[in-house]
Design brief:
This is TetR family transcriptional regulator. InterPro entries: BetI_C, Homeodomain-like_sf, HTH_TetR, Tet_transcr_reg_TetR-rel_C_sf. Pfam families: TetR_C_6, TetR_N. The chain contains 9 helices and no strands. By secondary structure, it is mainly alpha-helical.
Length: about 200
């Protein structure tokens, strides 16, 4: 057991070195040797834990995604009473945006991963499996909202759920490019949620 814990701890240290490079200069030109140097270990030692850059990216992205899920869960659990579907969706969408240093780093690592996944079918397996699950979860929240009379029934669809995911992805891109800042991104997200839900329909 101690050896396994040490192995995972070292993989995490290497992953954090990758994050630091992502924050400082991006990952497109970064090699395994660059990451090894940042982590303070030899290239051979790094390759004991990750044979390829893709393996390292997959591990780093999985850990960052878990951290994002934990942030979202904490935000939802902090809501008073029984959170409404809209509050759950708002917390999820907030957690998907790069609004601070940690989430920005996660988005940068994700961008590097997706750039490589476009040309690698094996790497695309993760998003192709994960996104439909997220879409299904969002659609379930929309259906709950419709049942509660908070959303027109015709909007409680998987298409609307996918539009929410796509909006978060688009806003994330523009945040990374400084087209707009966090406040504007959240304003646009809230504007879309207001139009999606019954706010306008009940006025």
């Amino acid at each position: 057991m101690p050896k396994k814990v040490d192995h995972e701890a070292r993989r995490q240290e290497i992953s954090e070195a990758l994050w630091r490079i992502a924050r400082a200069r991006g990952l497109e030109g970064a090699s395994l040797r660059d990451v090894a140097a940042e982590a303070g270990i030899s290239l051979g030692r790094l390759q004991h834990y990750f044979r390829t850059k893709d393996e390292m990216l997959v591990f780093a992205l999985a850990h960052i995604n878990q951290m994002a899920e934990d942030r979202i869960r904490e935000r939802i659990e902090a809501l008073p009473g029984d959170p409404t579907p809209r509050e759950v969706l708002h917390a999820c969408l907030w957690g998907m945006l790069p609004l601070d240093e940690e989430s920005r780093t996660g988005t940068l690592v994700g961008a590097a991963f997706f750039h490589r996944a476009v040309h690698d079918e094996a790497l695309r397996a993760g998003p192709k499996d994960g996104i439909p699950k997220l879409r299904g979860f969002f659609a379930d929240q929309l259906r709950r909202a419709a049942e509660r009379g908070e959303l027109p029934p015709e909007r409680a669809t998987e298409d609307e759920a996918m539009l929410l995911i796509s909006l978060a992805d688009g806003l994330s891109t523009y945040l990374l490019l400084d087209v707009h800042g966090p406040e504007q991104a959240m304003h646009l997200m809230d504007l879309h949620l207001s139009r999606l839900f019954a706010d306008d329909a009940t006025r």
